[in-house]
Amino acid sequence: MGDIAKGALGGAWTLLVGWVLPTALNLAVLTTTLLPSLREVPPFEHAASLAAGRGAPAFLTGSLMLGLVLNALQNPLYRILEGYLLWPAPAYAYGCRRHQAIRRSLTDRLVLLRLERRAADASLSVIDRADLTLLSHSPHLARYRDLDQRSTVTRRALLQERLARYPVGDGHLAPTRLGNAIRRFEVYAYDRYQLDSQLLWNELTATAPEQARRQVDTARTSVDFFVCLLYGHLALLLAAAVTLTSTTTGRPAVATTAVVLAALVPVWYRSAVSATDEWAAAVRALVNVGRHPLAASLGLDIPKELAAERTMWSLVSRIPRIPYHEHAAALDRYRRSPAPAGDDVT
């Protein structure tokens, strides 16, 4: 039944689930817990009629309209959580340094666990033994040593999962967990193939298999859902603060609602970060299987050697980014030969 609904709704499925549904949930909290206490506050006295059950059409219309607005604003909303928008320069730099240290700590912990496991089998080289001694006495790993030594295979896999949510290279780090979790798959294509997927995203999605494109949209919907819930809860917290300072009606219920909302905000943020795992896997699949039809649509043949392919995509990525230069003629050796006259072109 879910697949039938998705097929019927098409592209609207991601909009409804990612933005309209969480907006409706937030409005439901607003109308049931906050608006009844705001009947005497002039800006909200007319909206309070929704809490009495007389505004179901208005509730649905409001959910749809606000969901559409949030969907249109998704880029700045994401950029705030990623740390790119409205972040002061000192906060941005501190966040990047902090996550650089976290990533280094995760890497060292995993390396230490691997070396200790190999040391038990007496299969360490001289260099590995030196690394093991250095990491064993490292001050920044002392707090994790006992916990890691008692960790199970599952806990070690969770450490690897946390490390995988960071992009490669310090130059790609973002100041927030969500920013790094998204940045890791934004730079995947460039790191592996020198293909700037951000710059060529429209071309890539236009030529990739439909199933790969659908997987990306579906995976992003989960992240959109939690991001929308998070922003809605922040708006509700602001409304709760206005309620507590403007009226004495229903204060216990409003205060309880505010506490619950404040506790749920970090939960939704962590859920959004975790949901990027599926999004990253979908983008990785899109790049791996989509670069071949992309090359064909551009009239190019992908070389057999990976190094040559990386050179080709590097040249392709320069064309939309910078004005034409004669050095772009180096792409000619990768272009397909024209089909003989009279041959069918499929």
Structural write-up:
By secondary structure, the protein is mostly helical. It folds into two domains: 2-83 and 193-297, no CATH class; 89-174, no CATH class. Helices cover 70% and strands 0% of the residues. The protein is built from 14 helices and no strands. It has helices at residues 2-9, 12-34, 56-72, 74-82, 89-120, 126-136, 142-149, 153-164, 177-186, 188-193, 201-207, 210-246, 251-297, 306-321. Helix 2 (12-34) crosses helix 3 (56-72) and helix 2 packs parallel to helix 12 (210-246).
Number of domains: 2
Low-confidence runs (pLDDT<50, min 5 residues)? 4-9
Helix count equals 14
Rg over alpha carbons:
26 Å
Approximate helicity band: over 70%
Cα end-to-end separation:
36 Å
Largest sheet: none
Average pLDDT reading: 86
**From the structure provided, what is the oligomeric state, counting identical versus distinct chains?**
single chain
Please state the structural category.
Answer: mainly alpha
Shape: flat
Order of helices and strands: HHHHHHHHHHHHHH
